[in-house]
Specification:
The protein has one domain. Helices cover 80% and strands 0% of the residues. The chain contains 14 helices and no strands. The mean pLDDT is 80.
Length: 254
Amino acid sequence: MLALYGKVSAETARRVLESWPAILALPAYPLIFYAAFLLTGSAGILGSLLLSFVIAACWSSYLELISQAVTSARFRLDWNEFRRTFASHFWDVVSVMFVFWMIELVVQPLTMGPRGPALSAIIGFTIAFFFNAVPELLYQGSSRSFALLLDSGRFVSEHPVAWLLPNVLLAALLFWITGGLDVSHPAQLLIAFGNTFSSPLGVIGVLLSLPLWALPLVLIAAHTAMIFRGVLFRELSSGAGNARLRAFQGRTRG
């Protein structure tokens, strides 16, 4: 498994350097979201809908940049290409957001009682666990909507340790940077993890809570982590990662 992570890390470093123009585009997303929030904050339901479309467009753009960084032999980004990215995966992202909205409608009544916060954390943790590979499937997979969520759950179930171990470490690093890592209260940490990583808005909320000076560094770190995830997903999906895991398991049994 260490050999797999070593290979993925080396390729991640190479692809981060080759796709360095994408880093210059990162500050645009929180600025767009913040401007959209100011413009739509007082528009009620219509404003919330418009803000959701803005979020979908930003995720579409970023996923396309990650897709090019992870899968393309040569990364290219200019103004026309950057504008195109906002529509590249827009409806795919909207379909996933719609499914998450439907799930929220179903589970919301269950979280209204006295045990609501605990139940909400369990549901959020479950979503963050089984739907963890949704971003990678959006630009490396072929399924959409409910089928995409099922594929994500299937992928994570097939590679629980190899996929989730680095992701948990990255999440812990993010909590540590933002001051939210408190191992003395594991239950609260579980609730925070579930609420943060069960939706794009949770991640956006963490980013917006950062001090302004720290935001560029965290964005670069998060961008590197997303490329690492993309390369790792490709390795595990291709079967090369599976062969390494089987060899590792054989050595441990022996």
